[in-house]
Backbone:
């Protein structure tokens, strides 16, 4: 589960957002929606979703928000990353069939795992639509990449690109059977209420160990219990969690 990744390339894809392509020690098939816990500094790790996998190449897309992600954004080709993973449970793409109408909804740093998810669904012959929400035009990334896979709508809060508003302005719940989403908690909370039969949410809350041992990532359940985002998730059925 622990492996050393080698950085192959790094580029800026939007303001403060970096794409890092790395080589895995061995080629792997990885279910979409899973993540890697990447070491930053001597002690800490940061969870980053797997945005794309091609044979032995793995792509991460992340926003610089603090020291850990700044460190990852400063890596150069041939640098090594100590990685734990792939970890967690991904989106249940095996349970989705070609007759179902699927919408993928991503907000900001929640967009990356949906890219590999849509790629794998399209390969299986499932028609998908994507709705991607960002704050402003300069934050938008991977619009063309999603468009190459299916109908894609971009929303920005300030209306500087695409449709003005939050992702929900572009959502037509009656048109979908399955919703797959990842993004900030208020967005997920609002999607939880949408009248769509099957809803799966990927939760990106703060983590410690990443492997179920420290309880840093717990999320309440409607029955008064809790689940661990790292090992029980990060993907949950919408009705399984209280956000
Ligand atoms: C399963 C999972 C997958 C993720 N995938 C991605 C991804 O693909 N791309 C990406 O850009 N980010 C992703 N994240 C979020 C990413 O892990 C955090 O942005 C990162 O850990 C921040 O580390 P840092 O050291 O840069 O910032 P820190 O110095 O740790 O934090 C800086 C500030 O951001 C806040 N913060 C840190 N992490 C979070 C968080 N998860 N949610 C809300 N606020 C936070 C802190 O409270 C602090 O105010 C994911 C998180 C999880 C749990
Ligand atoms: S991060 Fe330690 S239990 Fe989930």
Residues:
């Amino acid at each position: 589960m622990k492996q050393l990744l080698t950085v192959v390339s790094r580029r800026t894809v939007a303001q403060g957002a970096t794409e890092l392509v790395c080589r895995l020690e061995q080629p792997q098939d990885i279910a979409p929606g899973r993540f890697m816990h990447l070491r930053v500094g001597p002690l800490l790790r940061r969870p980053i979703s797997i945005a794309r996998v091609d044979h032995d190449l793995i792509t991460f897309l992340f926003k610089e928000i603090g020291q850990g992600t700044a460190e990852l954004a400063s890596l150069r080709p041939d640098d090594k990353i100590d990685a734990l993973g792939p970890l967690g449970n991904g989106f249940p793409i095996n349970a989705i069939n070609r007759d179902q109408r699927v919408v993928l909804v991503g907000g900001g740093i929640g967009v990356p795992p949906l890219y590999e998810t849509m790629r794998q669904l399209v390969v299986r012959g499932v028609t998908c639509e994507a709705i991607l929400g960002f704050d402003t035009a300069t934050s938008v990334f991977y619009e063309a990449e999603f468009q190459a896979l299916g109908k894609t709508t971009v929303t920005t809060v300030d209306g500087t690109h695409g449709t003005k508003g939050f992702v929900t302005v572009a959502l037509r719940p009656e048109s979908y059977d399955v919703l797959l989403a990842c993004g900030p908690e208020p967005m997920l909370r609002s999607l939880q209420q949408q009248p769509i039969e099957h809803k799966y949410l990927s939760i990106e809350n703060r983590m410690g160990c990443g492997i179920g041992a420290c309880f840093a990532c717990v999320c309440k359940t409607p029955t008064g219990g809790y689940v661990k985002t790292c090992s029980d998730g990060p993907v949950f059925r919408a009705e399984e969690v209280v956000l």
